[in-house]
Amino acid sequence: AEEMSGGGGEDATTEPAExxxxxxxxxxxxxxxxxxxxxxxxxxxxxxxxWETTAYGDAEDFEGEExxxxxxxxxxxxxxxxxxxxxxxxxGMNVLMEPDPRQYRWxxxxxxxxTFSPGSVSTLARLVPLLAQKWGTPIYIMDVxxxxxxxxxxxxxxxxxxxxxxVNKRPEWYHQLAGDLNNAxxxxxxxxPTLYRANGKEERYVAQVHVDDIMATGDAEPHGQVxxxxxxxxxxxxAGPYQQPGAGGDEFxxxxxxxxxxxxxxxxxxxxxxxxxxxxxxxGRPKVKATPGPSGQxxxxxxxxxxxxxxxxxxxxxxxxxxxxxxxxERPDAQAVIQNLSSRTAKPTAKAMKxxxxxxxxxxxxxxxxxxxxxxxDKSVMNFARSKLTPDxxxxxxxx
Length: 400
Description:
Alpha-Beta Plaits; 6-stranded antiparallel sheet; 4-stranded antiparallel sheet; 8 helices
């Protein structure tokens, strides 16, 4: 027999032949009816495992793997993309909620058409009462009658109509009123165009404008000039001066908010009574629950498996939600519940309506709650920040 190769080498040995009785398909039987015998010789060999050796360059040294060498601009772009992907993933899990940009734009990028947005007013309207406390000056409320009809009309303007008609006169009125206030020696703040102050260094006067409503405080001379300029041109309703503190201190309203001067000179801001009345009627006059707090006993963050409201109930839900959102700045005790209810606006459920009615009952029983604006001498709010792109830089401080 022939010696077989295949890795045997010097250690290969030859074993006796084996008899295989498995015939091939074309084999024939012999005359005695038996298969022919075929002799096959096998080889017993020593085997070894062969490993393929691959040479890796320095760039493929996995043990010493390092981040890619990118410029700061490219790295910042990749970081931004990764952050966007992560935010998108969290929003898909309902972990994050999309904020309303109109609530924050006033802080850095207020546009002309947004200067009269309700979301830009609630915080700014607190500045005038605080300055009135600091200066010890009275507060005045002014309202220009038929403001949009006081600007030049490009064509005849319908006054009484039977169908809905709306012509946007806000830009014309904004520029015209701004010119009148500038003529009264007031200047607007570039970051917040609806906030005005006296441009004289020694003069104390500030005014907050919302379309045709103005809340102002300051010395008598600059206020007299503003009042004269406006009354010479428009029909203006002027209320004030409000300055009297005490148990029965002066009260006034501005932009559907009640202001009351307290005995210590501070000013408390509350939601108007008519908002509470509207909510109470819309909710079907709910009973004031014995359960303390605005959210009741049920866990408002638990999974909601209740059925959706029908269209009529959903409309009532959204109407009530709009009213509680308007008063939320003056009711910090209910803000968490209001935020939770607002997240269900698209598809309000029976559980959401139950929570809404409990909240309305709670608000009805606590109408005296509000926000007290008072001075804090020698105290400030500091904002500490560090740049995301340059984390090694020192923390910056901003006086708020």
